[in-house]
Design goal:
- The protein is mainly beta and 299 residues long.
- The chain folds into two domains: 185 residues, Sandwich (Immunoglobulin-like), CATH 2.60.40; 90 residues, Immunoglobulin-like, CATH 2.60.40.
- The protein is built from two helices and 19 strands.
- Strands 1, 3, 5, 6, 8, 9, 11 and 12 form an eight-stranded mixed β-sheet that branches. A four-stranded antiparallel β-sheet has the order 2-4-10-7, with no helix packed on it.
- Strand 5 and strand 6 form a beta hairpin.
- The longest helix has 26 residues.
- It is globular.
- The N and C termini lie far apart (64 Å).
């Protein structure tokens, strides 16, 4: 009878541990599981110990930053949209942190927009570096559309120019078995830089670093409540180009030949009526060079 009692107690304790694990991880990630310098991932921290960990190249994770040229102005508010796309998955999770590149320390301020789906958490990464990150809540882990989910949050830039800043984030595509086995973790990062005043640059003679900055400036976004796609591209000279829109699967949706002038260019393209919600890739070809930008389209 004594052995039977011990066995029953052991089963009850194991069940409670597993239940508490499942509830805790569904309600939010382990603080410091972003994969950022000085942080761990869910696999390394002993949470999802058998999960596969992949450095994502933009196939699964997409982070959208509302500044059209991926720059920040000190003190301004920005909306971040994190989308995850993985076929057949119905339960997801994430954790995201912002670090100042020069010191790899916490920077800016997060605020939850979807307060029932996301939350702010914190942990001490090192003496003097308390990191604040965003993660899911229980209500923010499931999706009505299998294979894709997204979360929105607000980030306020620091009050002064601190140089480049990187958002580090890990997403979890789970098998929804309530255990810490068999899940898939995807690690990504997204860099922004401070606004640089280019109004005095003579784009007809620009060289060196300034030319490089202009050549590599592409930002695309869907205009609010419309079927218009805005393409913003900075060119250091007059040149022909081609704008192309692809589904994330690689299917070409539309293309348009354009002529860019020196400096900032904005092209507005009407999206096809059959465009569905989800992640897309915008490509701009100029002078045998290719520039890309991932976007999320909404109906």
């Amino acid at each position: 009878m004594k052995n039977k009692t011990i066995y029953i107690l052991a089963v009850m304790i194991s069940t409670l541990v597993l239940a508490s694990y499942s509830v805790y991880k569904t309600s939010g990630a382990h603080p410091g599981s972003t994969g950022a310098p000085g942080d761990l991932t869910c696999a390394q921290s002993g949470c999802h110990v058998t999960a596969t960990v992949t450095q994502d190249t933009g196939v699964v994770n997409t982070l959208l930053f509302t500044s059209i040229d991926t720059t920040y102005t000190p003190g301004n508010n920005y909306t971040l949209t994190l989308q995850v796309s993985k076929a057949a998955i119905q339960k997801f999770g994430f954790e995201l942190v912002a670090l100042k590149d020069s010191t790899n320390t916490n920077i800016g301020t997060f605020t939850a927009i979807e307060t029932t789906r996301t939350q702010k958490i914190n942990h001490l990464a090192s003496p003097g570096d308390t990191r604040f990150s965003m993660t899911h809540k229980t209500a923010g882990t499931t999706t009505s559309t299998p294979g894709t989910i997204q979360w929105k949050m607000r980030w306020t830039a620091p009050s002064t120019n601190v140089g480049t800043i990187t958002f580090w984030y890990t997403t979890n595509c789970t098998n929804n078995n309530g255990l810490n086995t068999g899940d898939q973790l995807f690690l990504s990062h997204f860099q922004i830089r401070p606004v640089v005043d280019t109004t005095s640059i003579d784009t007809t003679v620009v060289t060196g670093i300034k030319q490089f900055a202009l050549q590599n400036s592409l930002r695309a976004y869907q205009e609010s409540n419309s079927q218009n796609l805005s393409i913003n591209f900075s060119s250091y000279k007059e040149q022909k180009g081609k704008i192309m829109l692809y589904e994330i699967t690689g299917k070409l949706i539309l293309e348009k030949e354009v002529r860019f002038v020196p400096g900032h260019n904005m092209e507005r393209i009407r999206l096809p009526e059959n465009c569905c919600e989800g992640a897309y890739v915008v490509k701009v070809y100029t002078d045998n060079k290719l520039y890309t930008n991932k976007i999320i389209l909404e109906k």
